[in-house]
């Protein structure tokens, strides 16, 4: 009798043990913070669907949080050492990634040994998500720079999109002047006081605001000076117009005042809603700096990557989720592309049929495979820990130069501002 | 009399032009809410036909009703609690003022002068330790008692007729009784003004709810609007609709209470 | 006549006295509010002060003494932002408060038609979301915007002004934006305060032949003095800590000409490599300046 009871007791114990085990598994939830329902959130939800087939016990809870809000929460929670409410995965702006990793060294999970194959992503993206040789992010959003142009306007001046492909800035200015003359339309617009376009131009030369030792590289940076010179010339010849803010920037090409734009590939999302212009747009690569050695026709602007928080209860699980979806599922990229235009930097996706579909808005151009191709050629640069400080300082310098200050004086001031902020 | 007429006419002209300047962005916003994003950016000034479509997009992409309810709940709790606590204190500081209380009031005023961004991290740690993250109390507590409101009630109490207090004491009312039965009804105009302002501030509060309410289910309207501006492609029609909806409660409360602080309730005090 | 009425108001105030028991009861009224402020403002402020004595990045902080305070004396961006907010303060607060006072005076007139409409209209800006008003403001002041078009059609301008591009025109824009948004807000307090004035005083003054200006300076302002003091302190404080307007209208540009101190603190905490200690030190300097200004205003304005 006693024996029987003991056996029964043991069996109950085991049952309880098993049930708690499976209970724990059922309960696994991966929380994700990211922004933009049509793009990142949509992609994440599709990834969750795919992972559901691989590991049905895991639920993915995707929460919409704007980028600035993610940064504020991360900084506050991490510096207060209260990480309980942080998610398992965050989407991180590439511009801010190194800064966050080096400011909060233990906060992000090191993905180097997680089994993710980083060779499958565009080189420049992997570089941006690597800190001290360790991989901290799974590259996602493709920020490869494109030059989007209205071919109907170009035609009036006797040009086609091919005349703007693989060219130098010198040629761009010549042809742009002619377009301006014939049609009265500039080819570009940019927001005054912001450095986005200049940074696209700078990265295409393979240079950045910091040298390989992470020291500010502004006063001595010949590439930067050439970039500023070209920018000024574009403005002077009215091929480029400056506007005051983002809304006016978008409106400048949506309304047709400006016949093109240069930005990260994600800008396509703001081009296509204008139905009347369907068929008039094409994309190509950006001009290169003929006078700078190693300069290319490729650059990037404003991409983002997935990171796993070290405070996650299940960092391995979160990493596995990313590995099986964003770093390993061609199917995922094929699913998200058609309805969201969410372009990835996952290179194997570039060969897939979906990526080779002609896009009607762009006159049947296979824009997605083109952009994936651009992405693979973007020069590798390190944005650096003090990226935002340097970008702000250079933006200030450029505004001063436009107001008539001497280039060297303005750059010297920017250099010393950044040096002052690095302590 | 001619001079008087010109004076009156110029007064109306002045008020009309100021009202136009004040209302224009609001009108533009409601017009924008009925248009497609592309037309909004093109600067249209005419009502469009996209209102229903914008509303569908808004409710499909966001949890509008929950955010409205959350904002309303937090703002209402904050307003009621802070009117009570702050007016009690403001009344106490003025009616029973002595050197000690005047000094304390000056100290409390200092609390108004520190940028919130700086106390945010310590405050967040404190609330974390108190277990108040993601709670209504956590949302409301830092603004239940504000130096500004206490100061407002203290300054307003200066016009509270003290003979009312003397008379009530003779009638046998307790000090607390005087506050609730005499002061609150007589000072209706100040309460109404304070309620509008407190509600509006709580409703629009951004930074504190952002960090204290990290659960998605606790999202408020300002955070919802922030999300609408965060996409790579912003839908301005939908954005303006959300913004328009989010200011309605403040406007309604203003309209409901404005008679109280602007038309006076003379007679009761005099 | 006016004077005798005011004297009467003053006299019953001065005649009022309180005894020790009431003083004690008074403490029970003020303690809940005071305790909450001590816990949720002063305690974090002390913590923030300790933070301001620490150097380092992110959550890796160590004691640095007064280093942060010494450093900010050499910080060009800090000095620039300080300069900017004082410009706003000097230009904007007097303009806005006078305008609010005048409007409250006009709208308090019971014979005025459509009072309620005007009141609502003037209040609306502070309830309107910054998102929409920033978009409109920037497009109105754009190079080919509404304002330039009007000024050029009226032949006031020969060339369009790049409002957001010049340092002083951009600052002016911030001042206009602030006034636009906050005048109605301050007006509410004045209107509420005016309800405590017996309309008979105004009637009497009118019969005595006092002009509108006299009524404003001799009756309205003296009686509203406690509230004017409140709004002055509040606006001084608000302007020195301005964030929303400079962030949304100009993003601190051109070339930091409109950057505010709070914006700089925000950048140091959330955009740049996070240095909470240094940000706290800057905030403390602002705190001391605002406190000194406010107590000067209190000394001048708060006699009973």
UniProtKB/TrEMBL annotation, chain A:
Keywords: Signal. Gene3D superfamilies: Periplasmic binding protein-like II. Residues 1-24 form the signal peptide. SUPFAM superfamilies: Periplasmic binding protein-like II. This is Carbohydrate ABC transporter substrate-binding protein, CUT1 family. It comes from Halanaerobium kushneri.
UniProtKB/TrEMBL annotation, chain B:
SUPFAM superfamilies: MetI-like (SSF161098). CDD domains: TM_PBP2 (cd06261). GO terms for cellular component: plasma membrane. The keyword Lipid biosynthesis does not apply. Residues 68-257 form the ABC transmembrane type-1 domain. It is found in: Cell membrane. Keywords: Cell membrane, Membrane, Transmembrane, Transmembrane helix, Transport. It is a multi-pass membrane protein. One of its GO terms (biological process) is transmembrane transport. The chain crosses the membrane at residues 12-31, 72-91, 103-126, 132-153, 191-213, 233-257. InterPro entries: MetI-like (IPR000515), MetI-like_sf (IPR035906). Belongs to the binding-protein-dependent transport system permease family. This is Lactose/L-arabinose transport system permease protein. It comes from Halanaerobium kushneri.
From TrEMBL, chain C:
It is a multi-pass membrane protein. One of its GO terms (cellular component) is plasma membrane. It is found in: Cell membrane. SUPFAM superfamilies: MetI-like. Keywords: Cell membrane, Membrane, Transmembrane, Transmembrane helix, Transport. GO terms for biological process: transmembrane transport. Residues 78-297 form the ABC transmembrane type-1 domain. Belongs to the binding-protein-dependent transport system permease family. This is Lactose/L-arabinose transport system permease protein. It comes from Halanaerobium kushneri.
């Amino acid at each position: 009798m006693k024996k029987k009871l003991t056996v029964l007791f043991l069996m109950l114990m085991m049952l309880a043990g098993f049930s708690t085990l499976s209970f724990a598994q059922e309960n696994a939830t991966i929380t994700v913070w990211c922004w933009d329902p049509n793009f990142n959130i949509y992609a994440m939800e599709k990834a969750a669907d795919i992972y559901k087939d691989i590991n049905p016990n895991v639920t993915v809870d995707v929460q919409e949080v704007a980028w600035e809000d993610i940064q504020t929460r991360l900084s506050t929670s991490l510096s207060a050492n209260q990480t309980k409410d942080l998610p398992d995965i965050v989407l991180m702006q590439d511009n801010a990634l190194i800064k966050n990793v080096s400011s909060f060294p233990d906060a992000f999970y090191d993905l180097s040994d997680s089994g993710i194959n980083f060779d499958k992503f565009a080189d420049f993206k992997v570089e941006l998500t690597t800190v001290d040789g360790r991989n901290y992010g799974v590259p996602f959003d493709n920020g490869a720079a494109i030059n989007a142009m209205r071919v109907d306007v170009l035609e009036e001046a006797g040009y086609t999109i091919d005349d703007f492909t693989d060219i130098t800035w010198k040629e761009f200015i010549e042809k742009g002047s002619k377009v301006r003359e014939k049609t009265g339309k500039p080819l570009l617009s940019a927001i005054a006081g912001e450095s986005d376009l200049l940074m696209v131009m700078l990265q295409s030369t393979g240079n950045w605001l910091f040298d390989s030792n992470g020291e500010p590289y502004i006063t001595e940076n010949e590439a930067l000076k050439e970039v500023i010179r070209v920018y000024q010339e574009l403005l002077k010849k009215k091929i480029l117009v400056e506007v005051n803010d983002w809304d006016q920037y978008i409106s400048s090409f949506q309304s047709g005042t400006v016949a093109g734009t240069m930005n990260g590939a994600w800008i396509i999302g703001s081009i296509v809603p204008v139905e009347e212009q369907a068929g008039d747009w094409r994309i190509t690569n950006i001009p290169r700096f003929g006078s700078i050695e190693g300069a290319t026709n490729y650059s990037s602007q404003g991409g983002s990557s997935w990171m796993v928080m070290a405070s996650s209860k299940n960092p391995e699980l979160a990493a596995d989720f990313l590995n099986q979806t964003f770093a390993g599922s061609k199917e995922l990229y094929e699913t998200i592309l058609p309805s969201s235009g969410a372009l990835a930097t996952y290179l194997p996706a570039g060969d897939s049929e979906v990526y080779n579909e002609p896009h009607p808005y762009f006159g049947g151009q296979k824009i997605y495979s083109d952009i994936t191709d651009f992405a693979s050629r973007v020069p590798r640069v390190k944005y650096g820990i003090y990226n935002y400080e340097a970008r702000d300082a250079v933006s200030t310098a450029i505004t001063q130069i436009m107001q008539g200050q001497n280039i060297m004086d303005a750059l010297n001031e920017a250099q010393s501002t950044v040096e002052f902020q690095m302590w | 009399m001619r001079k008087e007429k010109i004076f009156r006419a110029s007064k109306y002209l002045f008020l009309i032009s100021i009202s136009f300047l004040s209302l224009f962005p609001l009108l533009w916003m409601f017009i924008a809410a009925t248009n497609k994003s592309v037309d909004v950016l093109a600067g249209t000034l005419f009502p469009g036909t996209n209102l229903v479509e914008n509303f569908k997009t808004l409710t499909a992409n966001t949890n509008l009703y929950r955010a409205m309810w959350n904002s309303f709940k937090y703002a209402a709790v904050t307003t009621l609690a802070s009117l009570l606590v702050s007016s009690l204190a403001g009344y106490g500081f003025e009616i029973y003022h002595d050197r000690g209380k005047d000094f304390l009031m000056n100290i409390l005023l200092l609390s108004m002068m520190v940028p919130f961004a700086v106390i945010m991290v310590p405050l967040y740690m404190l609330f974390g330790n108190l277990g108040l993250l993601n709670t209504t109390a956590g949302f409301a507590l830092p603004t239940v008692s504000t130096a500004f409101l206490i100061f407002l009630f203290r300054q307003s109490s200066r016009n509270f007729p003290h003979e009312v207090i003397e008379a009530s004491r003779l009638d046998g009312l307790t000090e607390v009784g005087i506050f609730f039965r005499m002061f609150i009804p007589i000072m209706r105009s100040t309460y109404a003004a304070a309620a509008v302002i407190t509600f509006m501030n709580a409703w629009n509060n951004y930074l504190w709810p952002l960090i204290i309410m990290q659960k998605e289910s606790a999202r408020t309207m300002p955070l919802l609007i922030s999300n609408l501006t965060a996409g790579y492609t912003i839908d301005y029609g939908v954005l303006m609709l959300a913004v328009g909806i989010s200011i309605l409660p403040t406007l309604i409360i203003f309209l409901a209470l404005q008679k109280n602080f602007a038309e006076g309730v003379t007679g009761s005090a005099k | 006549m006016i004077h005798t009425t005011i004297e009467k108001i003053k006299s019953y105030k001065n005649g009022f006295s309180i005894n020790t028991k009431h003083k004690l009861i008074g403490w029970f009224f003020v303690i809940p509010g005071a305790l909450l402020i001590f816990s949720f403002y002063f305690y974090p402020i002390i913590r923030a002060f300790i933070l301001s004595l620490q150097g380092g990045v992110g959550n890796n902080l160590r004691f640095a003494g007064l280093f942060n305070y010494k450093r900010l004396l050499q910080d060009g961006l800090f000095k620039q932002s300080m300069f900017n907010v004082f410009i706003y303060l000097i230009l904007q607060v007097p303009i806005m408060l006078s305008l609010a006072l005048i409007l409250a005076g006009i709208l308090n007139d019971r014979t005025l038609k459509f009072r309620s409409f005007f009141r609502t209209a003037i209040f609306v800006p502070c309830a309107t979301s910054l998102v929409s008003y920033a978009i409109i403001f920037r497009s109105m002041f754009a190079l080919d915007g509404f304002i330039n078009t009007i000024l050029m059609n009226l032949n006031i301008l020969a060339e369009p002004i790049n409002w957001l591009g010049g340092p002083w025109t951009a600052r002016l824009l911030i001042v206009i934006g602030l006034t636009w948004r906050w005048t109605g807000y301050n007006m509410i307090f004045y209107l509420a305060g005016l309800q405590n004035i017996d309309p008979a005083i105004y009637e009497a003054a009118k019969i005595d032949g006092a002009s509108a200006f006299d009524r404003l300076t001799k009756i309205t302002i003296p009686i509203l003095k406690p509230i004017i003091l409140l709004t002055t302190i509040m606006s001084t404080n608000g302007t020195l800590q301005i964030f929303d307007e400079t962030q949304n209208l100009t993003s601190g540009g051109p070339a930091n000409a409109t950057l505010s101190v709070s914006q700089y603190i925000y950048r140091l905490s959330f955009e740049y490599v996070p240095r909470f200690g240094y940000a706290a030190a800057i905030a403390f300097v602002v705190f001391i300046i605002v406190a000194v200004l406010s107590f000067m205003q209190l000394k001048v304005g708060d006699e009973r």
